[in-house]
Design a protein that fits this description.
Helix content is 67%, strand content 4%. The chain is mainly alpha-helical. Strands 3-2-1-4-5-6 form a 6-stranded parallel β-sheet, sandwiched between helices.
């Protein structure tokens, strides 16, 4: 058995083992990859003889990561939240970099190194945030949209950094490789390249993709060939950019093609394999011989990322007119550093701008912030309820960004929480019965649409005391929650049991165990989508209504439209 095959086998088996453990612990799998590298390298006895091959594979991982980022990067998404994400994103990057650099200076690092550390702290993890928001079903919420928009701004800024740093000297002996002329020339080359790729994406590439899209194998091979070909050109002496820029440009060129999602689905597994090797390599390069020197700075910088960074975001959002709840949830969602932070610090280390101990420092900060921010995001609503009385300083008296409209006198009304999907059908049924309905939804687009239809609506959720007061849950005769978050529903039941025992409570659950817990807490009825769907089909079969399936189809199509 060849040594490289044996070494990769050990790496992959350890990664698989730790991935299972971290999945059970609900931690980001990035940590499992880094831990594997640390155990094999700094803490282990295994002497790898093919580190150069692993290094090449890790560079491929970063290239595939940026290729996927380019494929999924939709500049149009930034327009959907207007200037908000741009304002918050740019301001957050500036203040985080400045304060992070100042803290690094206080901790004793040189000026140039402190600036690099501050820049690394400015980014938050797109992979972790999007994954957790998706799991919480909060991607369409206002704070979710702002967080994702801010991440998009950060990603664009990171791309500019990669372009600028490609002009740096690779001479580790020089005090700095920065040159205004070289950096300006690199930016000009970058804009020309982006313009060229944009031209191809609008003219030649769509026609090629149209021809080959019917064959999945051909589509995959052509996409990979395009990625490697463009990356080779971009990283050649003629242009001189890092291979990562080539990966990003290759993805951006195909982002608007009709087969965009097919390419993403095909390439994802390949990316995951190589990016695993990248993070393992980062773990391997971690130097724990200097742990005594970096542990105190790592704790101090991690506290800034976990506490200071959210405070910066809350202050910015409070000044621009957002309510404290939206600001708080956005802030803690971005309370970690990014995989881009690791790529960036790894790049400047490779260019000789920072020492190896700084790579270990940012790695340790990443591990701490990944772990703790994971819990902060997951328990965000509970944290907010506990901290709400102390967050009044982060909210202006006039929160013009999130107006709460009055709905007049309310008594014996129905409160519907969550109007998307299941809630939409319930709302139509309640309006058909001429019931007085007040809706609450965490998606600002849904609320805007409901107000156009003259439906009394509030933006927020029922765990927000201010929303509960305005919707007058205390006087409602029926409260229906189609939000699948069991914590929110348990909190809602508890509040109604304390303040409005006469109200009937209907909530939604996604699992049998959640349904049992909600019934035990006092729910009058729990909606289980899979159970209700089965009962509906069973009723059609029992009543021999197969001839009426067409009627049901027409009703469903009218609902979907």
């Amino acid at each position: 058995m060849s040594s490289i095959f044996f070494e990769i086998t050990i790496v992959i088996c350890l990664v698989a083992l730790f991935s299972i453990i971290f999945k059970i612990l609900r931690q980001p799998l990035i940590l499992a990859y880094i831990l594997t590298g640390i155990i094999i390298g700094p803490l282990g006895q295994l002497q790898l003889t093919n580190k150069e091959i692993l290094q090449t594979m890790s560079e491929l991982g970063v290239t595939f990561l940026l290729f996927m980022l380019g494929l999924e990067l939709k500049i149009g998404e930034l327009k959907s939240i207007g200037k908000v994400a741009l304002t918050i994103g740019v301001a957050q990057i500036i203040f985080t970099t400045l304060i992070g650099s100042l803290i690094s200076l206080i901790l004793g690092f040189p000026i140039a190194t402190s600036i690099y550390i501050g820049l690394a702290l400015a980014f938050s993890s797109t992979i972790i945030v999007v994954k957790l928001l998706s799991d919480k079903r909060d991607l369409d919420s206002l704070y979710g949209k702002i967080a994702v928009g801010t991440l998009l701004v950060q990603d664009l800024f990171a791309i500019l950094l990669l372009i600028i740093f490609s002009s740096f000297s690779n001479n580790a002996g020089s005090s700095t490789g920065f040159s205004v002329i070289n950096s300006s020339f690199a930016l000009i080359k970058g804009f020309v390249l982006f313009g060229f790729v944009f031209f191809l994406s609008k003219t030649i590439l769509p026609k090629i993709i149209d021809v080959i899209a019917k064959s999945q194998e051909a589509l995959f091979l052509v996409s990979i060939a395009w990625l490697f070909g463009l990356t080779a050109l971009v990283s050649s002496p003629l242009i001189g950019f890092p291979i990562e820029i080539g990966g990003l440009l290759a993805g951006l060129a195909l982002a608007n093609s009709i087969a965009n999602y097919q390419i993403v689905a095909r390439v994802r597994s390949l990316r995951d394999f190589f990016i695993t090797i990248f993070f393992v390599s980062l773990g391997l390069s971690t130097n724990f011989s200097t742990i005594n020197q970096i542990i105190v700075p790592a704790i101090g910088i991690s506290l800034f990322v976990l506490i200071g960074k959210p405070i910066i975001i809350m202050l910015i959002m409070g000044i621009t007119g957002y309510r404290k709840r939206t600001s708080f949830l956005t802030g803690i969602t971005l309370a970690q550093i990014s995989e881009f932070s690791l790529i960036f610090i790894f790049l400047v280390n490779k260019l000789g701008q920072v020492q190896n101990e700084i790579v270990s420092l940012i790695m340790l900060v990443g591990i701490i912030s990944f772990v703790l921010s994971n819990y902060m995001i997951f328990y965000g609503n509970k944290l907010y309820r506990n901290l709400a009385p102390y967050l009044k300083y982060f909210e202006r008296k006039s929160t013009h960004k999130e107006l709460i409209d009055g709905v007049g006198e309310l008594k014996d009304h129905v409160v519907l929480i969550g109007v998307h999907r299941v809630g939409k059908s319930i709302l139509e049924a309640l309006r058909d019965e001429k019931e007085q309905v007040v809706t609450i939804d965490f998606n600002p687009d849904v609320v805007s649409e409901l107000k156009k239809r003259k439906v009394s609506s509030f933006f927020g959720d029922a765990t927000d005391l201010e929303i509960m007061e305005h919707a007058k849950l205390d006087d409602a005769k029926l409260v229906i929650s189609t939000v699948p978050d069991i914590e929110d529903n348990l909190h809602l039941i508890k509040e109604l049991n304390n303040h409005n025992r006469r109200a009937k409570i209907i909530v939604l659950a996604n699992s049998d165990d959640d349904a049992k817990a909600l019934y035990k807490a006092g729910a009058d009825y729990v909606i289980l989508p899979h159970l209700i769907g089965g009962k509906h089909i069973a009723k059609i079969l029992r009543e021999n209504n197969l001839d009426k399936i067409k009627d049901f189809k027409e009703k469903d199509l009218s609902y979907l439209n």
